[in-house]
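Support case: user asked for a sample of complex input and structure output to validate their parser. Sending the pair below.
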Amino acid sequence: MVIKQLPGVWWGVLCTVWDVRTVLAIGVGAGDPELLTVQAVEALNRVDVFFVFDKGESGADLDEARRAILLRHAPGEKYRVVEVPDPRRDRQASAYTAAVTDWRDERAARLERAIETELTDGGVGAILVWGDPALYDGTIRILDTIIERGVVELDHRVIPGISSIQLLAAHHRVPLNQVAGSVVVTPGRLLARQLARGLDDTVTDIVVMLDAELVCTRLRGQGFTIYWGAYLGSDDEVLIAGELDQVVDDIVRTRRELRERKGWIMDSYLLRRART
Amino acid sequence: MVIKQLPGVWWGVLCTVWDVRTVLAIGVGAGDPELLTVQAVEALNRVDVFFVFDKGESGADLDEARRAILLRHAPGEKYRVVEVPDPRRDRQASAYTAAVTDWRDERAARLERAIETELTDGGVGAILVWGDPALYDGTIRILDTIIERGVVELDHRVIPGISSIQLLAAHHRVPLNQVAGSVVVTPGRLLARQLARGLDDTVTDIVVMLDAELVCTRLRGQGFTIYWGAYLGSDDEVLIAGELDQVVDDIVRTRRELRERKGWIMDSYLLRRART
């Protein structure tokens, strides 16, 4: 199957002709409104309805960041914001993947209802995604689910954004890969499982996301350098780098203090050792 | 060592006060001028001198793309463009990493001379990087080499950009990772070596870059889906997706035809199979 990407202008024309509702997953980058691409800014200004999942906990900060982005980049305010109540997610579930799937299906059903009632035929809806919709975000899968259900006819498009991984590298001023080397991007849970089985010597560069337990503390004495960052792209950004054995305690302490002060933490890190 | 990132405005002020030359590695995204971030556009407009490595082969197309970016995003033309002759790289060398290192050292020496002669104290120089400077690009390492040599005093900063990997995912409208899964980003050469040793069952999602030999042809019959893209982000973009066994011959043929027609090819792909 060959799909030729249509230039943006034709895509706009076609959607209008077809009279199909369109939903954009717009990556807005990790925190800083300056991280939006020109493409994302232009997309924002075509949107009739922004669908926002109503979050708990870290919701207030995210709301404020979203408002800052719209205020700066779509000042015309020709859009509406529609809140979609977020289902509660079972974070203690042992079957993590199944729990995520259930939660996503429920989210899809709620978003589907909101699209049906709030977006007119030919209208453009959007979901703003922190970082990049392609990395550790469920929006693309939710839209796929709605399309599979077939209740609402929908076209969709993904607009990439700068992820926190990229900010981590940029602000530490290091590449993510070594010369001709590979990089593994992994959630903390999966790295922990991998460590239990033993880490292959050929794995030298690891980016760790969503790691509530700082699995890196189990990697002392193995020649790793660590580049750690919290609240990347925001005014509260903190970076720590150095030989893992030397700085990991500092990272553990800093992370705990930041989390207590702000009520939530969002961090990631790159682990690197010499290639064999 | 804790490094607190300075907000952009202070960083600008400090550099002027210190009277140190600054060189920015600016990620301009993969091809389309719309992919620049607002941060990158603002950076472009602070630049006194753009240093451009003079390439062979694909040079003409890249030159044109660079001109298009500057014309659109820095129309004031308050900058100069300085060409730095590119050393010839031994692409046949058996010691690939060593060859890359030699070539980088020579590039660093040439850039250093250009910075010394063309950039005044307190001036801002820049190197435009296709995609993201953090992924399979040598610019950060070249700047590190210049700083280590210590001949020219230099401050540097990295501005992230949308990589072709992100366009690959966005235009195929798929995430790079499965739910709670990891992703390996790897050059083709390294994947070939890995396949010779046998691919671990836990490796289910692989992004392959810089793969002259389409190593994916060796993965028939293993349940992979492939998302392939060439000239991502440009008007010539081509996408092919499907079960690897079904579409890989089409990819091989399309890639050969495109390469013949244009004289060069730039492509990447995502391999995906069910998580065990």
